[in-house]
Fold these 2 entries.
Entry 1:
Amino acid sequence: MRALVGRLLGLATVLAVVGCSGSSTAGTSSDRSASLAKLVAKAHLSVCPESSTASASGGLPKVTLDCLGNGPAVDLAGLRGPAVVNVWGSWCIPCQEEAGYLSSVYDADRGKVAFLGVDTEDQADSALDFGTHVKPPVRYPSVVDSDRKVLIGLATSGLSSASGPPETAFVGTSGKVVHVHPGEYHSAAALRADIATYLHVR
């Protein structure tokens, strides 16, 4: 419970940075934390994964991001696969259109492939509410990337040329990014095909 409270306070800070302005009072901060707590409970997101302290050669950018729901902060460079890492935002129309495909594949392949969302330039309340309206609901975990660090890092390393979400990276067992799919997925079958091709999971 103490970890959840700490995470919610962190999310309140993220919300203030990405979307709020002006002065705040203890009362409004308390109200926001209570509101976020309800959204976290309603979202039923899986716990964010543990990550290695060692960075992988050719891996995701070396950034540590807070979990959107429950679980530890994640060092992206320490993430090991097979994993699908989807960069998204609740405000992003193509992200909205592909979310159901990712969710259905995650539900079907849970235990075979890890999924992690990277919620980009978003407000915590919007992000938490977003997944509950997707069919099937999004249950895989996400981390909060308010400064586009992952997108910038992928572009800087030459792994991607995308200017914004959605974008999906495939991480192998060594932690190396083996493929980046720019843009949205238009079907669950297309995502499954890439998982089979690049992560060798069927």
Entry 2:
Amino acid sequence: MNARAFEVGDAIRFGWATAKAHLNLVVVLTLVTLLAGGLPSAIAEGVVRGSPGLAALFRIAGTIISLIVSIGATRVSLRLHDGGTATVGDLFAVDGPLLWRYFLASLLYWVVVAVGLVLLVIPGIIFSVRYLFYGYAVVDRNAHPVEALAQSAAATKGVWGALSLFGLVIIMLNILGALALGVGLLVTLPVSALATAWVYRRLTGTTPAAEVPATV
């Protein structure tokens, strides 16, 4: 039996219990994350559509902000998992080297998945699960892009089935959140993030990022 195997129910229960313990905080953080990531693109589509150059600038800004808050949200979920706390400012406390590494790792991840999807679809699904934790490796372990994918592959080895089931449960959970007039996402998204942080810690047994030297 795989010593790193996990129960999906345990992950979801942890996510729910931790979100409930920090309910006001996670709702505010999730709302800020959604607004920060979506507002520039909404402005580009609805306000400055008649100016292609300006609209493009807003879309680029939206992409950059989305990357920043994705890094921040990953860091916050790990902090809450580890018994710490967070503030709204933590969503945006990202330095240039980390942002660059995260961007390159994300680009590499999606290229690998896209190539896999072209190769009869199934390889793309497998790659999407195998390299699922690349972002956590960058944020939590200061990993470079290729290292991040390699660390994720090592962490997910032998637990593909459990991770696939976990992903389906997370998707269904957030569909239910969206059906509740979208408001439910303010709870289901942080539950999902915290459950994912639990799975990451379970599979890697890693220490907090503060104990890992940063590299450019």
